[in-house]
Amino acid sequence: MVRARREATDAIPVTVLLDTNVLLDVILDRTPWADDATTLLDRIARHEARGYVAAHAVTTVYYLVERAKGRGAATTAVSDLLDILDVVALEGADFRRALALGLKDYEDAVQAAACLKVGARFLVTRNERDFKSAPVIPRSAAEVLALFAPIENT
Predict the structure, then answer these.
(1) Is residue 90 one of the residues assigned to a domain?
(2) 14-41: buried (b, 16+ CB within 10 Å) or exposed (e) per residue?
(3) In a structure prediction context, what are the per-residue pLDDT tens digits for the chain, which is 154 residues long?
(4) What is the tally of structural domains in the chain?
(5) 39: containing domain
(6) Going along 59-147, which residue ranges are E strands?
(7) 21, 56, 62, 153: which has the fewest Cβ within 10 Å?
């Protein structure tokens, strides 16, 4: 994963919220999804897209990475994500909105509410069917990458 400090950018063509599973694919190198998810994070780090993560997902990522790889890996992973992604701060109204969405899985509903809060164009996930009835557009990392011009070899 490319580690780069975010800078303010006015003309970002694609804004996305990354689901927890996509972040874990990168950090835990889960194949076959890790390559596309890593490439998408790299594009975000290069300011070719704007990426968000829901606040509650940060703690979930830390917990799961710590269990799988230890505290140091979890700290590094979360630090890297915070360098690349903007965090969607969630409040009581957002959690109520998630309840009102009526999705089967409440955590998915909170992800959708975070996506709506920041006006992200896509919710990047591996579980598109979980968001079928949500008022967001779920897409895989590969589908979002298809929106970009090919990466130039330098």
Answers:
(1) yes
(2) bbbbbbbbbbbbbbbeeeebbebbbbbb
(3) 444 444 444 455 799 999 999 999 999 999 999 999 999 999 999 999 999 999 999 999 999 999 999 999 999 999 999 999 999 999 999 999 999 999 999 999 999 999 999 999 999 999 999 999 999 999 999 999 998 866 555 4
(4) 1
(5) 15-142
(6) 86-88, 122-124, 138-139
(7) 153
Tell me, what CATH number does 85's domain have? 3.40.50.1010
- Within 8 A by CB and 6+ apart from 81, the residues are 23, 53, 58, 61
- Tell me if 66 is assigned to some domain: yes
Q: How far is CA 147 from the centre of its chain?
A: 17
- Asked whether residue 147 is assigned to any structural domain, the reply reads no
| DSSP tag of 85 | S
The whole-model pTM stands at: 0.87
Q: How many residues does the chain have?
A: 154
- Minimal CA–CA distance to 147: which of 2, 38, 15? 15
